[in-house]
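hey can u run this one w/ pantoate bound, need the C-alpha cells asap thx
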Amino acid sequence: MQRLAKNWQRQRVRVGFVPTMGYLHAGHLSLVRRARRIVGAKGKVVVSIYVNPTQFGPKEDLSRYPRDFARDRKLCREAGVDVIFAPVDREMYPAGEGEEFSTYVVEESLSRGMEGAARPTHFRGVTTVVAKLFNLVLPEVAVFGAKDFQQAAIIRRMVRDLNFPVKIVVAPTHRERDGLAMSSRNKYLSPVEREQATVLSEALALAKKSVRRGAVSSVRLKADLARFVTNRPAARLDYVELFDPRTLQPVSKVGRGTQMALAVFFGKTRLIDNETL
Ligand code: PAF
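ok here u go:
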C-alpha cells in the first residue's frame, strides 16, 4: 500500500481516504462519494477495511463484529473505489519474541469523557490505527463520519499535534428513514430493539425542541432525556452529555450550538448518536 501511495505522490495524483471497519452501509458510501468529489475523477479513492483489535475492550464485540468482505468489495466496486486496503492483524500489529508491537498514539485531553470514559482503551486504539493507516495510504484528505463526533475531534487534534499532512473532512450522519443513525452494529438489534432504537434520534430532537424554546439547565435537560430514553423497555442509557463542540467540556447552560451525544445499550448492543442543538 505504501509503495503504491508513494508512486501516486510522485505522479502528483490526489488521494482521498475513507478508513472503515467494513460491513459497509449507505453511510460509508456517502463518505466515499465525498472523497471522490474532493479528489476528482483523476484522483484515487482508497477505502481501508480493517476491524482494528486495539480499539475494542476485552468484553466488547471484536470476535462477533460483522464481517462480509465479498459484499464490501462489491459495494466498493459499484461506488468507484480505486483501492481497498484490507490488511490482516499480523501486518498491522506484528507479534513474536522481541518483535511485539509496542508504540501507541495517545490523545490526552479530548479522549477523557464520553466514549473514552465508557471505553477506556478505545481511543488509544483508534488514534494508533489511524496514524498507521495515514502513514501507509499517504492521503491528502481523509473523510470520517459525524456519527463518531468525539472520534473525529480527536483525529483532528492528532493531525494538528503530530503534523500529519492530511486534511480531515467530517461528513454528515446518514440516517434510516425513521431517524436511526446508520451503523454496522444496527445488524445486532432484534426486531423489538430495532423499533425502540429510534429513541436516540428522538432524544436529540427533543433536546433541540427544548433549546428552541430558550436556554435550559444542563442538569434538568439531562434528567428529562434520561427519563425519555429509559421509558423504552429495551433501552438502557449509558450516558447523555451536553458539551462545547470545540473543547468537548460539559456546559451548565444549554443553548443553540451546544453539542449533545448519547450512548444507549439494547441488550449487549451499544449505539451512539449526536447532533448540534
Ligand atoms: O470509525 C471507524 O470505523 C473506526 O474507528 C476507524 C476510524 C476505521 C478506525 O479503526
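The chain has two domains: 2-171, 185-276. anyway lmk if its weird
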